[in-house]
């Protein structure tokens, strides 16, 4: 297939692009606006591959989206482009409404026009895969509850509300217009090339510099952690095998309180980077509890049994193996981190 990926220079998008180019025979068209969180350095290893093409474009630009689709003639669209940081959505929700809602609508309309004009064989094979988040479900009260594909939506932040809106639009375009859509909702991703403002890379990089490790509230907020390369495999599995109109939850089966995640990182750094910054005796000494985020969800946990049962996908990495790979990657790639942080200061977000 030729697969058009929106947001392919972001964290999950770049992992998906690298996986498709390195481990499959599919071709990729990467459409990315290159905001502060988009970084083509994450794709240097595959940028010269003849099966890869890049288009610098905004999904809110309807004429440009139509032009790209007509030029490249993709067999599937995998829509990952989104504003995705909860704290940023609290400080400035407008960008989240624009990209996640208006952008998804614009892309859906461009895709619908393109799909309707395809020859019948290609039309029946076409797929529009919308990648979303478990945060649309709100949070869980009981320690035994899990998010399933039938869980009611109850978003808590401007970010999750905008993603919930985009999910509803995608399903409406399938029901109203017959667009062949697939939806996936994933748990928290982690891994290499993760933007440094997110919890895991922030903690790793701050610890290496001897800076405080900020933990919201009491640190007991629970998340299900999914290694990003496992997610990339799951996304392709859904495009290739998923049933039109279906939703698939993708999780790592790794529920951990935030404070456990932070302490795990500290323990790995004690082993992998024992030479600490001046004044630091133990990495855990840097842990600092800060005022909790407004409306902070307490627990997310994904029931990923449907995608395992129906499509045969399960995660390959445990939390322990994936976190070790992640910490080691950041230790080995501090130049990438420095470049992206410098670029963040230059790019208007």
State the gist of this model.
The protein has 349 residues and is of the alpha/beta class. The chain is 44% helix and 16% strand.
Topology (SSEs and partners):
Blueprint: E1 2-6, H1 11-23, E2 27-32, E3 52-56, H2 62-72, E4 76-79, H3 86-91, H4 94-116, H5 120-125, E5 127-133, H6 158-177, E6 181-186, E7 188-190, H7 199-208, E8 213-216, E9 222-227, H8 228-241, E10 247-250, E11 255-257, H9 258-272, E12 287-290, H10 305-311, H11 319-332, H12 334-346
Parallel strand pairs: 1-2, 1-4, 2-3, 4-5, 5-6, 6-10, 7-9, 8-12
Antiparallel strand pairs: 9-11
Notes on the protein architecture:
By secondary structure, the protein is an alpha/beta fold. The chain has a domain at 2-194 and 226-254 and 298-318: NAD(P)-binding Rossmann-like Domain (Rossmann fold). It has 12 helices and 12 strands. The chain has helices at residues 11-23, 62-72, 86-91, 94-116, 120-125, 158-177, 199-208, 228-241, 258-272, 305-311, 319-332, 334-346; strands at residues 2-6, 27-32, 52-56, 76-79, 127-133, 181-186, 188-190, 213-216, 222-227, 247-250, 255-257, 287-290. The strands form 3 sheets. It has a 7-stranded parallel β-sheet, sandwiched between helices. It has a 3-stranded mixed β-sheet with strand order 7-9-11. Helix 7 packs parallel to helix 9 (258-272). The two termini are 33 Å apart. The mean pLDDT is 94.
What's the architecture of the domain at 2-194 and 226-254 and 298-318, going by CATH? 3-Layer(aba) Sandwich
Using the alpha-carbon principal axes, give the shape: globular
Strands of the largest sheet, in order across it? Answer: 3-2-1-4-5-6-10
Provide the β-strand percentage band: 15-25%
* CATH hierarchy, class of the domain at 2-194 and 226-254 and 298-318: Alpha Beta
Largest sheet: 7 strands, parallel
Strand pairing plus helix content: what structural class? alpha/beta
What is the radius of gyration?
A: 20 Å
Overall pLDDT level: 94
Order of helices and strands: EHEEHEHHHEHEEHEEHEEHEHHH
What level of helicity do the residues show? 40-55%
CATH topology (level 3) name of the domain at 2-194 and 226-254 and 298-318: Rossmann fold
* Distance N to C terminus: 33 Å
Tally the helices: what do you get?
12
Low-confidence region ranges? none
The CATH homologous superfamily of the domain at 2-194 and 226-254 and 298-318 corresponds to NAD(P)-binding Rossmann-like Domain
Number of strands: 12
């Amino acid at each position: 297939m030729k697969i058009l990926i929106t947001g392919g220079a972001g964290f999950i998008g770049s992992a998906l692009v690298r996986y498709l180019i390195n481990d499959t025979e599919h071709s990729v068209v990467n459409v990315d606006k290159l905001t502060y969180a988009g970084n083509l350095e994450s794709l240097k290893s595959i940028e010269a591959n003849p099966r890869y093409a890049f288009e610098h474009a905004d999904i809110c630009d309807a004429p440009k989206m139509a032009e790209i689709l007509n030029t490249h003639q993709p067999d599937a669209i995998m829509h990952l482009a989104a504003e995705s940081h909860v704290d940023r959505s609290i400080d400035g929700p407008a960008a989240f409404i624009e990209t996640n809602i208006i952008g998804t609508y614009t892309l859906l309309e461009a895709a619908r026009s393109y799909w309707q004009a395809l020859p019948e064989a290609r039309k029946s094979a076409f797929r529009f895969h919308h990648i979303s988040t478990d945060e649309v479900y709100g949070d869980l009260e009981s320690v035994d509850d899990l998010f399933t594909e039938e869980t009611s939506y109850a978003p808590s932040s401007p970010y999750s509300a905008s993603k919930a809106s985009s999910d509803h639009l995608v399903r409406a375009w399938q029901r109203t217009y017959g667009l062949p859509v697939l939806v996936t909702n994933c748990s928290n991703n982690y891994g290499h090339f993760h933007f440094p403002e997110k919890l895991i890379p922030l903690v790793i990089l701050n610890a290496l510099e001897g800076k405080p490790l900020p933990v919201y509230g009491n640190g007991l907020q629970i998340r299900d952690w999914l290694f990003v390369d496992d997610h990339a495999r799951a996304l392709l599995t859904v495009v290739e095998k998923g049933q039109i109109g279906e939703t698939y939850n993708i999780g790592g089966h790794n529920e951990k309180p935030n404070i456990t995640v932070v302490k795990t990182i500290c323990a790995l750094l004690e082993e992998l980077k024992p030479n600490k910054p001046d004044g630091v005796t133990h990495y855990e000494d840097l842990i600092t509890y800060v005022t909790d985020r407004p409306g902070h969800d307490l627990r997310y946990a994904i029931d990923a049994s449907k995608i395992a049962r129906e499509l045969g996908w399960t995660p390959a990495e445990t939390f322990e193996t994936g976190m070790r790979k992640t910490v080691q990657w950041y230790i080995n790639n501090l130049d990438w981190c420095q470049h992206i942080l410098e670029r963040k200061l230059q790019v208007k977000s």
